[in-house]
Design a protein that fits this description.
Layout lengths: L1 H16 L6 E4 H5 L10 E6 L12 H9 L5 E2 L2 E4 L2 E7 L4 H7 L2 E5 L2 E5 L2 H11 L2 H13 L4 H10 L3 H8 L2
Helix pairs in contact: 4-5, 5-6, 5-7
Length: about 170
């Protein structure tokens, strides 16, 4: 399982070097696993900066065209299949997710360098999305990850999520 992930991360690095991607960061379940024990997930969420076209629409075709030229042509829903993994390229929306990408840390995994969202940003994003599986990620990170509670509180307050956090804590 680890070798295909390393290949994907190396591919993301190459995409950045070739200016197909600017800033990117892994979030979602795979991002959480850098702070917790592994658990099942079906995809990799790669949050990316994409410059909107003059019309304000986001054009993802340069990314997918580049991947197709490298032999990655199979799609499943919105995911492109890379090394037998579903990979979702998600434009980083302004605000919380954009900051999470901007402040992502780089970690080494084998020969690959991976940009990972901070535990505190992952918690804030999961809280914002608010699905049952997102709350499970929050619990895993809080129990197993090294969370800076002050940093998390600043992020939650900055993005108007602190009241939602208080409700979450009291349930």
């Amino acid at each position: 399982m680890l070798l295909p992930l390393i290949k994907i991360f190396k591919l993301l690095e190459r995409m950045e070097k070739e200016n197909v991607l600017t800033k990117w960061a892994v979030g979602g379940a795979i991002g959480c696993m850098f702070y917790t024990e592994p658990f099942f997930t079906k995809d990799i969420d790669v949050f990316i900066y994409v410059q909107p076209a003059g019309s304000g629409l986001i054009d993802m075709s340069p990314i997918f065209d580049w991947l197709k030229c490298k032999g990655y042509k199979k799609f499943e829903g919105q995911s492109i299949i890379i090394e037998e993994w579903k990979v979702d390229f998600i434009p980083a929306s302004a605000g919380l997710v954009e900051e999470a990408v901007e402040k992502a840390k780089t970690v080494e995994a084998g020969e690959a360098r991976i940009r990972i969202m901070s535990a505190e940003h992952l918690i804030a994003i999961a809280l914002h999305v608010g699905r049952k599986q997102d709350y499970a990620k929050i619990e895993k990170i809080l129990q197993q990850g090294n969370v800076d509670k002050n940093k998390m509180a600043r992020i939650l307050k900055k993005f108007d999520l602190y009241k939602k956090w208080e409700l979450y804590e009291n349930t």
